[in-house]
Recover the amino acids of this structure.
């Protein structure tokens, strides 16, 4: 029987905590931001589009939680600095960081890969996550508490045809998670990764010219990944750090 807590993401309280979610305007990031807001967290939602990020912030406020929408491109270092500054001015610091923002590219062979796109993918998907985490860690260390959740992918487990840049960054996210977890555990900070399988997001649809679950019933709903993030953000996950949790759903290779 499916746990109602894990099925809905409900049942955990994040009251009194402040969470920053990147790539929060759509897909998995949006689902996580809304789930955290429902659980009582202050939510800082960031993405590159003003109208979309304000819509997320307003939805969080409708649950009775505080929210701040900040427009930022994680490929731009000054945007990251502004994001951290705005967050600290509004809430004093961050207890929960979700590194979700990512550029998803379609199938492009290495021989055809545009070098600037390659740099952009690495800059946003891994360097941006590093810079943001680095900026927020001192506050977590000072408070002796923190949860860092890195969104990797099933693609972080294995390379794939035409998926080189994306999968390299998602593999790097797993290694980053393990290395950082080893460094900060004694400071009361847990660091984990989630490796989603195929998920019906706007990014997935655009990258693969797909109509989503209507075309591929194996795809998960973003709320299913949000439920895993909710557990990792909660105090119930105190025994879990340095883990990369495979959340493959119907795309699990075990199913053939």
């Amino acid at each position: 029987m499916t746990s109602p807590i894990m099925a809905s993401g409900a049942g955990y309280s994040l009251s009194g905590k402040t969470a920053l979610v990147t790539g929060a305007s759509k897909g998995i990031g949006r689902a996580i931001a809304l789930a955290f807001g429902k659980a009582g967290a202050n939510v800082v939602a960031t993405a590159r589009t003003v109208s979309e990020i304000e819509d997320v912030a307003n939805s969080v406020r409708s649950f009775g939680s505080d929210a701040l929408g900040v427009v930022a491109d994680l490929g731009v270092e000054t945007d990251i600095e502004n994001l951290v500054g705005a967050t600290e001015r509004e809430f004093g610091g961050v207890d929960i960081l979700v590194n979700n923002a990512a550029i998803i590219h379609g199938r492009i062979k290495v021989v055809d890969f545009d070098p600037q796109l390659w740099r952009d993918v690495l800059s946003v998907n891994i360097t941006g996550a590093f810079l943001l985490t680095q900026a927020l860690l001192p506050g977590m260390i000072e408070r002796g508490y923190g949860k860092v959740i890195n969104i990797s992918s099933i693609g972080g487990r294995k390379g794939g045809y035409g998926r080189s840049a994306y999968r390299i960054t998602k593999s790097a996210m797993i290694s980053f998670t393990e290395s950082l977890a080893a460094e900060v555990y004694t400071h009361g900070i847990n660091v984990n990764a989630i490796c989603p399988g195929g998920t019906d997001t706007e990014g997935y649809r655009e990258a693969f010219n797909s109509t989503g679950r209507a075309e591929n019933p194996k795809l998960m709903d973003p709320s299913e990944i949000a439920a895993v993030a909710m557990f990792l953000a909660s105090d119930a996950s105190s025994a879990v750090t340095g883990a990369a949790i495979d959340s493959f759903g119907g795309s699990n290779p075990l199913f053939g």
Remarks:
- The beta strands are 18-22, 42-47, 67-71, 96-99, 146-151, 189-196, 244-247.
- The longest helix spans residues 115-143.
